Automatic annotation (TrEMBL):
<dbReference type="InterPro" id="IPR036661">
    <property type="entry name" value="Luciferase-like_sf"/>
</dbReference>
<dbReference type="InterPro" id="IPR011251">
    <property type="entry name" value="Luciferase-like_dom"/>
</dbReference>
<comment type="similarity">
    <text>To bacterial alkanal monooxygenase alpha and beta chains.</text>
</comment>
<dbReference type="Pfam" id="PF00296">
    <property type="entry name" value="Bac_luciferase"/>
</dbReference>
<protein>
    <recommendedName>
        <fullName>Luciferase-like monooxygenase</fullName>
    </recommendedName>
</protein>
<dbReference type="GO" id="GO:0016705">
    <property type="term" value="F:oxidoreductase activity, acting on paired donors, with incorporation or reduction of molecular oxygen"/>
</dbReference>
<feature type="domain" description="Luciferase-like">
    <location>
        <begin position="6"/>
        <end position="295"/>
    </location>
</feature>
<dbReference type="GO" id="GO:0005829">
    <property type="term" value="C:cytosol"/>
</dbReference>
<dbReference type="InterPro" id="IPR050766">
    <property type="entry name" value="Bact_Lucif_Oxidored"/>
</dbReference>
<dbReference type="InterPro" id="IPR019949">
    <property type="entry name" value="CmoO-like"/>
</dbReference>
Length: 344
């Protein structure tokens, strides 16, 4: 049975504040918990005025306090930005605060230009070369499976689920070698999806944490009463994608009716390309698109993404999506495996 989870970028909208963004994320997490979603992840991005998840572990503490059962975690922490010891302490603290609910998704992409590298006091491109070793060290700091000269407190002995995130064959190969669950970021980089999942499953080596491959795939999802409403709602994120790819990122903009059709051909082609991992439409349409995507990828879990200008639209979209997927009535309180971990 396919599980469903949520990835949130903690978007900051035009005319909005950081406080409002954090409140909206907490409300979305509460909705995901009520609807039976398995986990709620926050992504690490820096120096982007439209995304407020840079201090990811702090945001997760806020989300944890607003919820009670759903797993919470990073989707993901970009490990080259940090030291393994710091992340072990931060997520060890989260595990002590919210026992049995913490996921630590790890990514390799530094995602930073020279200015951010200087601000972080890191050579991020060099640090990314040590990513595999840093993942092993971080796991050892948490599990104690390797005797290290220093112990992370909090950290050592924490019951954290470690994940590998990726959008290429590199992450798939490393996740397989280390016996970790693997989440593919198809929502913004669908090119290598099928090859990466095949590589991961074929090369997977069982570990103490995971006996067989476990795959999650992220896709953008916008559900509304009509397909036209859903397409308009999705236009805020489409504008954000175009702005990012053209070097002009900013706060999340209001929706624009017919936005995609107004773009020049290269930009429309980019959005069509991202549409490979998207479901946009009325609830039944979204359900069918998600079901087809799940069948194509054979994913154990689908991670639902998609920022909206009005936070209530995101909540309504998630409600309609989950009701359609579970074939329940909108008034039902769906009971799900909110505290479920990855099956061993």
């Amino acid at each position: 049975m396919t599980r469903y989870s949520v990835l949130d970028l903690v978007p900051v909208r035009e005319g909005g504040t950081l406080t409002e963004a954090f409140e909206a994320s907490a409300a979305l997490a509460q909705t995901a918990e009520r609807l039976g979603c398995t986990r709620f992840w926050v992504a690490e991005h820096h120096a982007m005025e439209g995304i407020a998840g840079g201090a990811t572990s702090v945001v997760l503490a806020h989300i944890g306090n607003a919820t009670s059962t759903i797993r919470i975690g990073s989707g993901g922490i970009m490990l080259p930005n940090h030291t393994p010891f710091q992340i072990a302490e931060q997520f060890g603290t989260l595990d002590a605060l919210f026992p049995g609910r913490i996921d630590l998704g790890l990514g390799r992409a530094p995602g930073a230009g020279p200015e951010l590298q200087r601000a972080l006091r890191k050579n991020l491109h060099q640090a990314s070369e040590y990513f595999p070793q840093d993942v092993v060290e971080l796991r050892a700091l948490i599990t104690g499976d390797v005797d290290l000269p220093i112990k992370a407190t909090p950290g050592l002995g924490s019951k954290i689920d470690l994940w590998m995130l990726g959008s290429s064959l590199f992450g798939a190969q490393l996740a397989a070698k280390l016996g970790m669950p693997y989440a593919f970021a198809a929502h913004f980089a669908p090119d290598h999806l099928d090859a990466a999942l095949e590589t991961y499953r074929h090369q997977f080596q069982p570990s103490q944490a995971l006996a067989k491959p476990y795959v999650a795939v992220a896709m953008n999802v916008f559900a509304a009463k009509t397909a036209e409403e859903a397409e308009t709602m999705a236009s805020s994120q489409q504008q954000a994608f175009v702005a990012l790819r053209t070097g002009t990122p900013g706060k999340l903009k209001p929706p624009v009716e017919g936005y995609a059709q107004s773009l020049p051909a290269p930009h429309r082609a980019m959005l069509d390309h991202l549409g490979q991992a998207a479901a946009v439409g009325a609830p039944d349409q979204v359900r069918d698109q998600i079901d087809a995507f799940a069948a194509r990828t054979r994913a154990d879990e689908i991670i639902l993404c998609g920022s909206t200008f009005d936070p209530q639209d995101r909540i309504r979209s998630l409600e309609q999506t989950m009701h359609a997927l579970t074939r329940s009535e909108p008034s039902d309180a769906i009971k799900g495996a909110g505290t479920a971990s990855i099956p061993a």
